[in-house]
Amino acid sequence: MRRNQRRLYRGLLFWLALVLSYFLSHAVPPSTVAQAQSQIFVNQASAQFVGPNGPATTVSNQTQVGATQPPPGPELPLLQITKTADRAAAEPGDVAIYRLLVTNLSTQPATPLTITDQLPLGMLYVPNSVQATPQQPTQAVTTDSSLTLTFASLGPGESVSVAYGVLLTPDAVRGNGRNIAQASAPGFTPVTAAYQMTIRPGILADCGTILGRVFVDKNFDGQQQPGEAGVPNAVIFMDDGNRILTDPDGLFSLANVLPGYRVGTLDLYSLPGYTLAPNLYRIEENSASRFVRLSPGGLGRMNFAVTPTFGEEQS
Amino acid sequence: MNQRWWIGYGAIALGLPAVGWAIAPALGQSALATYSIRVTSGDDGPMQPDQGLTLREAIELANGTLTPEQLSEAEQALVQPLPAGQGSRIGFDLPVGQTTIALIDLLPEIVAPELVIDGTTQAGYDGSATYDPKFPAAPAVSLTVAEGSEVARGLTIAADGVTVRGLSLYGFRTSDRATKTTPPSDIFVSALAPPVDASPLSPALELFRLDQPDLAPRGVVIEQNWLGLPPDGEFPAVPSAFGVTVFNAVETTIRNNRIQNHDGSAIITGFRADGLQVSENAIIGNGLAGMPDAIRLEGTIAASAITDNLICANDGSGIYLFKPEGATQISGNAIQYNGRRFERAAVYLMGSDHQLSDNFIGYQPGPGVAVTAYPLSHRNQIRGNRYAELDGLAIDLNTQGNTEVQDFQKGDGPNPPRNSHHRRRETGNAAINAPQFDAYSFASGAAEVTLTGTADPGSEIDLYRVAEPGSPYSPLTEPLGTVTASLEGTFSASLALPPGTRVSAIATDPEWGTSEPAAVASVLAADGTQPDLPATPVEPPSCDPPTPPPAPVEPPPPLEPLRLEIPRNVHFALDRSNISTESAGVLDQIAAALLEYPFLTVELHGHTDPRASNAYNLALSERRSLAAREYLIRKGVPLERMRIVPFGETQRRSQGSGRVDYARDRRVEFVFTDVRGLDIIFVNQEADLQLE
To answer: With a cut of 0.95, is the ipTM above it?
Structure first.
């Protein structure tokens, strides 16, 4: 009985705590929340332990949360750089156009302003593709994979926009597609901007294609000759679970197959009345499945010869 | 090239006897001595000079691979030389009670032209014991496989003009392998037949040629045989795989045979079957566990004809033309009760210029005639046929390039009218429009009713009476007459029809073919009412051989409801489809009831418990229904009264997941129906429940 009372008491306390906290959270006016955001919270941790000289206490450094950056004073030199491109993903052979925007946020001129961009592996700068507005670079040093532009001066509050083209070579597939542009000027802290471009293999993809046919073999050689009709709507299962249906002529093709060893088999339930035909010429093809070694980007063939069946109850 | 020759000679020198048989005709066809031979021994085995002459020795004699000098004196007395210009003849004089020839190996290929193998010469054959040429008299000599042996083919015919008459052949099949063998058959007709499989003993493959039409045997005749069933008419212990495989032969004639109980098709063509004539055969209950269609035509079939056959109770279509080259003529056949296992069209047409006329097509769980949309199939003339009890259209033209699974089995139903000339290229029979009556009903005049409607200009309209009530696309019962549509595309016909008659029509244009049937219109009385015509009782046809003509006329039993207490399900063990002893007892009761009441038909619904995949369970349930059906077949229940419907795990008996629930789920249900509206009391029996 006592125990139950205690339980009841505890439950009541818990409920009270819930209700109180609910009301408290709503009682605080929203202005205080905004105030709290601009407040600076100081946090310090301490730890106690028993050392060789008895109990000891160690104290961490102080950290601050919520401290807003002071607005850039006129005395602080500051540059801002933004980097974008005309596409998020590219394939070898594409030309991507990068765009840089450098702004002087301070009150003092950046003289001279230098912009450098190091291109990632496999990207080639397209010669003479730099276009800058509103001012033109006084000096441009370009190599295949890097770009350095020097502008005479960027006044306070001014911006300069630079666009240039980059050609993706097959090597780009091995690179990470991330490049970093940097803007710097004497007396200014250099600023950087990165842009990540997804590199797709595109024409260099190593996926292969499997094609084949299901047909009624009349001379039992495993090849389709005139007079050997294709079987429509036959089902071929691949080792990865792909299910392929033949067309009315008994043909099928499967694109984007990962290279490697691929196995396909015929679903005999899809062609009632037919079963796998014997191959009188190649013992290897007297098998329920076809095995293809698909080289990267290669073409594999899976032909299934069928013949009218009997004795279905045996299998 | 030279190397090949040497390899060839090497192969022959190694002494494969089959190569010798195959080469023989090429070397000595003109100088083949001919004999009249009497087979007196039913034994089989290698040639040896002994007392009796075996069929193997007889064929070797005719082929010229054996000379009479190699025989014993007793055997030589059975061989009489015949004058040149006459083919050899093999007769039978087997001792009484030993008329079954059990083969232990393939017989040599028949390469002797004009050879006649005549089982009717055996004493005891009574050729007059038949009432219908479709059902020849029971043969006296039967050719089968010795117990424990595997023989793929009964007779392999590779020579012109060979005749096989009056034999019973059954039991020819091969066992299961990684891939199947080349088609095993009772009779295989081909120039230089392919070896059974790719075993090292198979003959050299240079000899297997298909592309030379002059090598194909011409004019082979197969008549008055029983294929697939022994002379006593029972279901054989080992069913044959296929009946007659016309693999590569021209102008083959198959007539007056009874072809029954095959795992695959009764008649199947392979590469070349030009000029094939199939006439007056009884083709019953084939396709039980393989190619389900009774007659399957593939390859080249130019100038072939299928006439006056009874095609009954086969598991798939009656006649299925699969991408053939050339046209066939199908006339005068009774194609009924097919589609026992696959819901297919009774006749499925691919290709152009086929002619279907004067057939009876009925009792099919599918359309009567289906014409495929792909490959292009035009100018198929389907006229003068009668239809009954179909599950689909009498004539179904697949449209809009439909090539789904169902379209190659059941067709796609009524087509919309042609709305573009492109439809012609993607519809069977070039999308000829079905006729359309101007009204759903026509008031009858004083003596005649005038039916009007629209159809393709210039086409010929065959009007049909429709006897079955219900659907606007009920089967076309009987032709009423033909009118021609005007150049504006209208037609009008005046017929003397009693009020209440329902009519439909099909249009035929020689340039395109025959259309689907029109939606039914009915004839009203002069006062606008539609009286109900008295239903004429239809005697459903059966697949049975005709009985003796002076059948005693029984007074018809009064149609009183019959109370019948029979169990309606059998149970199975986990993942099994064999019939247990208890289930056999139940099946015996069902068989007895089915045999006692010939108006009962039954659907075998196979079910499984919900474990394992849907596809596996569907297959398992089909195996269970097939096992039950096979048991009933062996008990003598006619095939045409049973239908296989596998359900898999979709319709469980119970809800729970206990052992008993699962055991109850694993069953085959027997759903009885009958033509007379019987009252049947069912008993839910569980005597054969098999807990796992």
So the answer is: no
